[in-house]
Design a protein that fits this description.
This protein has helices spanning 41-48, 70-74, 92-102, 107-120, 136-148, 166-181, 193-199, 217-224, 230-238; strands at 2-10, 16-25, 30-34, 56-61, 64-65, 77-80, 154-158, 185-190, 202-207, 210-215. The chain is α/β, with parallel strands linked by helices and 241 residues long. The strands form 2 sheets. A 6-stranded mixed β-sheet has the order 6-7-8-3-9-10, with helices on both faces. Helix 3 (92-102) runs parallel beside helix 5 (136-148). The longest helix is centred in the last third of the chain and has 16 residues, at 166-181. The structure holds adenosine-5'-triphosphate (ATP). It comes from Brevibacillus ruminantium.
Length: 241
């Protein structure tokens, strides 16, 4: 479970990047965090994951405070950032092993996990190549594999489907569903409404730092009393025509 309690963040005196955000994402749920460019999605994710310190408010990850019980909180989740350009000099396999080391994944189980992940993401042949030789989508996949190798209970992903080919995108969505159905939590941001509609149990829509809506897609439609396409609803809600 992720609990975001009255979290705010400003980068300058005039505007709040995130303004008094309250959200609870229970276990067993895929939660999609939507909003236009500059809405506050990445800032929120950085505060959830302890990369950015909020000005006010608290974030609890499975009950552990990211600011005061940081290590315990960080052990609860795996984070896929929006840019996969990390550790470019390492080979794919070295990177995944590094991540497995960081999270104390026993040698006995990691090999099987790595093989399974590589197979599912079509990366078996690329594992011994350096990450800098990878395409954007392959870098994205290796970062995702580095997270999944330690089987975190909570997945936090910033625009995870960007750059993935259709097959890998399908695989990741399938894995997200399996993860939530096993009683765990998935929180991800996206611009793609169709993805959110098909995949998410609930969505939150943020604009200019303020949460505009939180609920199911059906509730969102009822809320706006319209049968227009979701994209249109989204555009109306956020005022971006
Ligand atoms: N380090 C920073 N310094 C100054 N301003 C920042 C910083 N990070 C974010 N901002 C500002 O905070 C606001 C929210 O940005 P954020 O990156 O959270 O949006 P986003 O919803 O993730 O956008 P996108 O979809 O374009 O990635 C924007 O106005 C952005 O310019």
């Amino acid at each position: 479970m992720i609990e975001i309690q009255d979290v705010s963040k400003s980068f300058n005196a005039s505007t709040k990047a995130v303004d008094s955000l309250r959200l609870t994402i229970p276990s067993g749920e895929i939660f999609g965090f939507l909003g236009p460019n500059g809405a506050g999605k990445t800032t929120t994710i950085k505060m959830i994951t302890g990369i950015t310190r909020p000005d006010t408010g608290t974030v609890l990850i499975n009950g552990k405070d990211i600011l005061t019980d940081t290590l315990a909180a960080k052990r609860q989740f795996g984070f896929v950032p929006d840019s996969p350009d990390l550790f470019l000099r390492l080979k794919g396999l070295e990177y995944i092993n590094f991540m497995a080391d960081m999270y104390d994944v026993p040698q006995g189980v990691r090999k099987e996990r790595i093989n399974k992940l590589a197979e599912r993401f079509d990366m078996t042949g690329a594992l011994t190549d350096p990450i800098q030789s990878y395409s954007h989508g392959m870098r994205q996949k290796i970062v995702i594999m580095g997270v999944l190798v330690h089987e975190p209970e909570i997945w936090i992903l910033d625009e995870p489907l960007t750059g993935l080919d259709p097959k890998s995108s399908f695989t990741l969505k399938e894995m997200m569903r399996e993860h939530a159905d096993a009683g765990r939590t998935v929180f991800f941001s996206t611009h793609v409404l169709e993805v959110a509609e098909k995949l998410c149990d609930r969505v939150g829509i943020i604009n200019k730092g303020v949460l505009q809506f939180c609920g199911t897609f059906r509730e969102m439609q009822d809320h706006f009393q319209s049968n227009d396409s979701l994209e249109r609803l989204f555009l109306e809600m956020t005022g971006h025509e």
